[in-house]
């Protein structure tokens, strides 16, 4: 027995030695979550590139310490979903692998810490990247900021010089604020860092915001700058001391919990806490900055690993998760918010939308705010203003705009939270509480779209009086910047009077501030800015003959009479009405009514006819906007798509078990199936034949993702005569342009066939297409709008950015691609204030740009985002005719 036991021990040691030798044969490991039910993108291009350069590489699908310690360096590609059987301590393993064991990690694209990636959920390496600072830039060029090789520890990018601009493979990149390490690449517009490398503990970390794919899809290997950056950062990682611990049993894996100083160093007295998603970054952060508040942004998931106390911050702005986001936010996070307020911290809490169980239990119930009966969705067009009593007892009103998920709340119990503000509907009648005063501050049943700066500035100054001087000074600086922006405007007579009044208010505000009355000064300077914007608006010329259209979500709006009357009164000329599929007699759709719907569409009314009649009654043109390639339940196409698996197969899913279509009344199938573009054509033809519409608009007239399904492979070869030897590598590499041209065919066929149908049935109808901004991005989506110039009336790029320089460059690019004798005209899709930042003044200036480069007109996205306040600016100014 003793000899047998000894033999087993020797055999076990030998097996371990052999296994270790086999595992150490590869220098670099690539995490491929898709090998175990997750999702990885771009790993093949990285693997092929390293292998071609003679670097040994292997793949793994679990971030266990045993797997990580097989390699001297690990690469995390774009990873939207972790492996199904991922090690539960994966995040702590990664930290320990670098800092304790001396390993190296290269994070790529959104894995550098984007909110949509699992690697954005914890601040693993704040020594290099400021957590919560990662964001996407829709740009295909970057600036080299790598240090001179003679003065650096490594020649990170041989052949490239600091200050040089260079293109990368994909049409976007991710960027971040850098806390440490060596910067390698930077975004040109913002100067935020795109790639950086640095040491953490015993190891090394690289954050590389490039994707390494083509706009049309994935690539077989990295090229150009993407290749050089990957190869040289891998070499830098391998040039380190290497692993100081190789035995998983010796690795010290602790629950790493960073201090607040590792996040933001508590630079300000006010913290903003919320998700790092699109809405928070592009709508909330700019709004708060324009309210004069200096805040530190803390991702809500940071509270998973640390408490927050009044010693850290005196005031927090907490944006509660949406109802459908609650599952990703532990109850402990809400408890920490409660502990902060109970310890004397002040707070302003925003209820962003539908109220979930955790919001109710941890935020509303403790304040005594109990919903009256069942929570229901209210109508976004009904709630048009907020009226409240300010800290001085004055009644104030903001022509706010509602979120699509505003939830009415019942009256609070006596002795608990006090209602001090209400939503007003379009009749200026009170509908539901909007603002509650609580023991810790305020709880707001508001949203993140409209201009609530006056309330935010008032509330912050009242809760944190020492912040009032700074708030006023920042608002004063913005006023002065706006004055500078309006310097070239030739003011009209009424405009000059308003401009004079604005300066008077500014003087009164300065006097109040000098007297220490900062709350009054804040209100006066905001009134001054409003008067300045009015002066600009009324001085804008009124143009004749331009289209002034608004994108309208018809299914969630009240009676069209209300909307059409309001839009006509503001100077609009047309409506793009959407979300009516299944709400008028049709052979193409089933009855498209969601459970519990009570708004238009939940009965047998022909809502298309009702909208057309009402719009024409008020002198407005109207036409439907279709999600071009969506197929709906109740149609033969839907049934076949489900039965025959017409799903889009991204590159990372080729050869993997198919993912079934989600249970949804609408599908987004592969466009190469002839029935799908035929269905898109039939949607428009049915309307053209039955209704006296003025427009047909196609939205999503593109591929959402590049598809590499077997049907695409067979059809591509059949249609083009190209022989594929390796799928999908060939169409990601040598045949990429041919494949993309082939993908564009069904998209172009929809446009040209619909244009022919319009010409044959009702030539007065105008055809408009929503495009994916510039040529490069549109090309990658198979949307060749520059080839449709004799088929369409309006090319409508989705320009929702507040950056007027970017907008002007885009207008110049598009006009350069529209031939002078062609039919198509530029008609940009603009965003109102509150969307992706942008002030009232900025949005009015965009109308100046639109008139200069796109005299055909503009379309706003969308009605429920266009506040009554902005309608006032349009009515009194550029659209007063």
Features:
disordered N terminus, single chain, 881 residues, 9-stranded mixed sheet
**Considering DSSP H and I runs of 4 or more, what fraction of the residues is helical?**
25-40%
Spatial arrangement of strands, main beta sheet: 3-1-4-6-13-12-11-8-9
- The secondary-structure class comes to alpha/beta
Mean pLDDT: 86
Poorly predicted sequence stretches spanning 5 or more consecutive residues: 1-24, 260-266, 372-377, 592-602
Rough outline: globular
How many beta-strand segments? 33
Rg: 29 Å
Ends apart, CA distance between termini: 102 Å
The count of helical stretches stands at 24
Q: What's the main sheet like?
A: 9 strands, mixed
What percentage of amino acids are in beta strands? 15-25%
Q: What layout of secondary structure does this protein have?
A:
Blueprint: H1 2-23, E1 28-31, E2 39-41, H2 43-52, E3 57-60, H3 65-68, E4 73-76, E5 78-81, H4 90-99, E6 104-108, E7 135-137, E8 141-144, E9 165-167, E10 173-175, E11 182-186, E12 193-200, E13 203-208, H5 224-238, H6 260-263, E14 270-274, H7 278-290, E15 295-299, E16 315-320, H8 331-342, E17 346-351, H9 357-364, E18 383-389, E19 395-398, E20 418-425, E21 430-437, E22 441-444, H10 453-463, H11 468-485, H12 493-514, H13 518-538, E23 547-553, H14 560-570, E24 574-578, H15 607-617, E25 621-627, E26 631-632, H16 636-644, E27 666-667, H17 675-690, E28 695-699, H18 710-720, H19 729-732, H20 736-761, E29 766-771, H21 775-780, E30 794-799, H22 804-817, E31 825-826, E32 829-830, H23 840-853, E33 857-861, H24 868-876
Parallel strand pairs: 1-3, 1-4, 4-6, 6-13, 14-15, 14-16, 16-17, 17-22, 23-24, 23-33, 24-25, 25-28, 28-29, 29-30, 30-31, 30-32, 32-33
Antiparallel strand pairs: 2-5, 7-10, 8-9, 8-11, 11-12, 12-13, 18-19, 18-20, 20-21, 21-22, 26-27
Helix pairs in contact: 8-9, 10-13, 11-13, 12-13, 14-15, 17-20, 22-23
């Amino acid at each position: 027995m003793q000899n047998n036991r000894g033999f087993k021990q020797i055999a076990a040691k030998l097996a371990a030695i052999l296994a270790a030798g086999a595992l150490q044969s590869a220098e670099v490991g690539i995490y491929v979550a898709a090998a175990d039910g997750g999702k990885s993108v771009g790993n093949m291009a990285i693997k092929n590139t390293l292998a071609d350069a003679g670097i040994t590489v292997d793949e793994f699908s679990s971030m266990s310490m045993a797997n990580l310690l097989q390699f001297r360096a690990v690469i995390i590609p774009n990873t939207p979903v972790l492996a199904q059987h991922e090690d539960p301590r994966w995040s702590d393993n990664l930290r320990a692998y670098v800092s304790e064991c001396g390993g190296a990690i290269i994070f790529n694209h959104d894995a550098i810490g984007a909110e949509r990636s699992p690697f954005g959920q914890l601040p693993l390496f704040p020594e290099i990247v400021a957590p919560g600072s990662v964001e996407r830039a829709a740009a295909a060029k970057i600036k080299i900021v790598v240090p001179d090789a003679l003065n650096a520890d490594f020649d990170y990018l041989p052949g490239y010089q600091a200050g040089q601009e260079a293109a990368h493979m994909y049409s976007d990149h991710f960027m971040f604020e850098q806390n440490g390490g060596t910067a390698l690449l930077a975004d040109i517009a913002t100067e935020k860092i795109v790639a950086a490398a640095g040491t953490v503990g015993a190891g090394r970390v690289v954050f590389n915001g490039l994707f390494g794919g083509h706009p049309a899809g994935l690539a077989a290997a990295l090229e150009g700058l993407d290749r050089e950056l990957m190869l040289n950062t891998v070499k830098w990682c391998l040039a380190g001391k290497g692993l100081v611990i190789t035995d998983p049993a010796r690795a010290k894996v602790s629950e790493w919990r960073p201090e607040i100083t590792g996040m933001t160093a508590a630079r300000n007295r006010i913290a903003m806490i919320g998700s790092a998603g699109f809405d928070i970054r592009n709508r909330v952060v700019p709004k708060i900055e324009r309210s004069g508040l200096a805040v530190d942004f803390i991702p809500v998931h940071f509270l998973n690993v640390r408490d927050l106390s009044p010693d850290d911050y005196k005031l927090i702005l907490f944006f509660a998760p949406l109802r459908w986001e609650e599952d990703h936010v532990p109850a402990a996070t809400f408890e920490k918010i409660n502990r902060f307020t109970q310890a004397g911290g002040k707070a302003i809490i925003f209820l962003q939308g539908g109220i979930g169980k955790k919001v109710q239990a941890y935020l509303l119930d403790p304040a005594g705010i109990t919903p009256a009966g069942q929570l229901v969705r209210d109508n976004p067009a009904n709630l048009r203003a907020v009226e409240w009593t300010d800290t001085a007892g004055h009644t104030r009103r903001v022509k706010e705009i509602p979120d699509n998920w505003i939830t009415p709340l019942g009256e609070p119990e006596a002795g608990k939270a006090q209602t001090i503000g209400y939503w007003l509907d379009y009749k200026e009648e009170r509908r539901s509480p909007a603002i509650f005063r609580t023991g810790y501050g305020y709880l707001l049943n508001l949203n993140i779209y409209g201009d609530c700066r006056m309330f935010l500035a008032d509330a912050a100054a009242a809760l944190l009086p020492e912040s009032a001087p700074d708030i006023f000074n920042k608002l004063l600086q913005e006023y002065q910047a706006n004055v500078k922006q309006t310097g070239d405007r030739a003011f009209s007579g009424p405009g000059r009077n308003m401009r004079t009044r604005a300066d008077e208010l500014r003087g009164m505000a300065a006097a109040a501030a000098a007297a220490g009355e900062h709350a009054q000064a804040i209100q006066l300077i905001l009134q001054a800015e409003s008067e300045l914007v009015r002066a600009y608006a009324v001085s804008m010329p009124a143009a004749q003959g331009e289209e002034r259209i608004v994108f309208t979500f018809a299914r969630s709006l009240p009676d069209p009479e209300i909307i059409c009357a309001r839009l006509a009164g503001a100077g609009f000329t047309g409506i793009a009405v959407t979300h009516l599929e299944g709400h008028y007699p049709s052979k193409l759709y089933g009855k498209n009514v969601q459970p519990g719907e009570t708004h238009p569409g939940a009965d047998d009314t022909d809502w298309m006819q009702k909208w057309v009649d009402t719009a024409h009654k008020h002198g407005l043109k109207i036409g439907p906007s279709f999600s071009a390639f969506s197929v709906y339940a109740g149609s033969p196409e839907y049934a076949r798509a489900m039965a025959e698996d017409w799903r889009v197969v991204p590159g990372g899913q080729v050869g993997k078990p198919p993912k079934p279509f989600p249970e949804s009344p609408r599908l987004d199938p592969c466009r190469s199936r002839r029935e799908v573009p035929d269905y898109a054509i039939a949607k428009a033809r049915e309307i053209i034949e039955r209704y006296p519409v003025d427009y047909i608009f196609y939205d999503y007239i593109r591929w959402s993702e590049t598809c590499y399904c077997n049907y695409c492979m067979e059809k591509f070869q059949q249609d083009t005569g190209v022989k594929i030897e390796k799928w999908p590598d060939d169409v990601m590499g040598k045949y990429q342009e041919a494949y993309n041209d082939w993908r564009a065919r069904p998209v172009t066929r929809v446009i040209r066939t619909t244009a022919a149908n319009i010409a044959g049935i009702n030539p007065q109808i105008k055809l408009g297409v929503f495009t994916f901004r510039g040529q490069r991005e549109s090309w990658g989506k198979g949307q060749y709008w520059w080839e449709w110039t004799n088929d369409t009336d309006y090319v409508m790029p989705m320009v929702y950015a507040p950056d007027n320089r970017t907008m002007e460059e885009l207008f110049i690019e598009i006009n350069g691609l529209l031939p002078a004798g062609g039919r198509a005209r530029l008609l940009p899709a603009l965003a109102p204030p509150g969307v992706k930042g942008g002030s009232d003044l900025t949005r009015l200036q965009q109308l100046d740009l639109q008139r200069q480069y796109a005299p055909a007109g503009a379309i706003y996205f969308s009605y429920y985002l266009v506040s009554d306040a902005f309608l006032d600016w349009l009515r009194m100014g550029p659209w007063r005719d």
